[in-house]
Write a structure and sequence with these properties.
Radius of gyration: 19 Å
Pfam families: TauD
Order of helices and strands: EEHEHEEEEHHEHEEEEHEEEE
Strand content: 25-35%
Family: Belongs to the TfdA dioxygenase family.
Protein name: TauD/TfdA family dioxygenase
Structural class: alpha+beta
Distance between the termini: 34 Å
Bound molecules: 2-oxoglutaric acid, fe (ii) ion
Number of helices: 6
Domain TauD/TfdA-like: 3-274
Keywords: Dioxygenase, Iron, Metal-binding, Oxidoreductase
Largest sheet: 8 strands, mixed
Length: 282
């Protein structure tokens, strides 16, 4: 196996690996898992993997999530279909920087996403390294946010396009979740900046006198939250991946955000994803 970094910050392509082999090969699986912790997103091309093997590979990391909105594949329960058809409106909710499912008590550990069909050009996906984003924060900001907690809601993002009744039903099932603004990676111990498009507000901003933020003489919680959310937008923390059919991305959802670029005209874009259940951020 060859490991080819795609940037200096995040993401590596694995060349010469058949992901289906890792379903039964413990050594190979552990190597891939280690590389994932190190690089945060792994990419592979030309993976002619069956849907059951796609699911079986993802299952090696843990149980798979269900998705409240997307249908799972009839051939492979646990595999969620993200299909974009030419007759659908272009706007979709994945084109915002986000960490999957932070509106849940336990956001996903990670995802294994395969491209089935994609536009000839456009429709890339981008990821950002949120451990690096944390590390690069000014010391004063790090001190300011160390014990902050924040509220996360699906309503602040994709629910905007949902009919009200569906939204209320989902809200009953998934009330808002509260997470630390800086989480600790349960496996690597890294500190991670953990706010994204689902984050609505801080829940304990008032408990400590906050230091001055930027040029603003009267700093507000919202300014700080916008600033922190904006760290994912910095290109030095990002990688951008160009899809082809049978390309696969595996990401650590605990330490990254991603953004599905919506720059292509009406066409088919078919992705299939298996999301792995994560633990409670601390
Ligand atoms: O379609 C993509 O490229 C990624 C969409 C997304 O945000 C996800 O699968 O979590
Ligand atoms: Fe996502």
């Amino acid at each position: 196996m060859r490991v080819e970094p795609l940037t200096c910050s995040i993401g590596a392509e694995l060349v010469g690996v058949n992901l289906a082999d890792a379903v039964h090969d413990d050594g190979l699986f552990n190597e891939i898992k280690g590389l994932l912790l190190q690089n945060k997103v792994l990419f592979l091309r030309d993976q002619d993997i069956s849907r059951p093997d796609h699911v079986a590979f993802a299952r090696r990391f843990g149980a798979l999530e269900d998705h409240p909105m997307a249908p799972t594949h009839p051939e492979a329960p646990g595999l969620v279909q993200i299909y974009k058809r030419p007759d659908q409106p272009i706007d979709r909710y994945e084109n915002a920087w986000h960490t999957d499912g932070t509106w849940r008590e336990t956001p996903a550990l990670g995802c294994v996403l395969r491209c089935v069909e994609c536009p000839p050009v456009g429709g890339d996906t981008m990821w950002a390294n949120m451990a690096l984003a944390y590390e690069k924060l000014p010391q004063a900001i790090k001190q300011q946010i160390e014990d902050l907690r924040a509220n996360h809601s699906f309503e602040s993002s994709f629910a905007a396009a949902m009919p009200l009744e569906q939204r209320l039903a989902m809200k009953a099932q998934y009330p808002d979740a509260e997470h630390p603004v800086v989480r600790t990676h349960p496996e690597t111990g890294e500190k991670i900046l953990f706010v994204n498009a689902f984050t609505t507000h801080f829940t304990n901003y008032h408990t400590k006198e906050r230091v001055r933020f930027g040029q603003d003489a009267n700093p507000g919680a919202n300014d700080l939250l916008r600033y922190l959310i904006g760290q994912a937008y910095i290109p030095e923390y990002q990688v951008r991946w160009r899809w082809k059919p049978n390309s696969i991305a595996i990401w650590d959802n605990r330490s990254t955000q991603h953004y599905a670029v919506m720059d292509y005209p009406a066409c088919h874009r078919k992705m299939e994803r298996a999301a792995i259940v994560g633990d409670k951020p601390f």
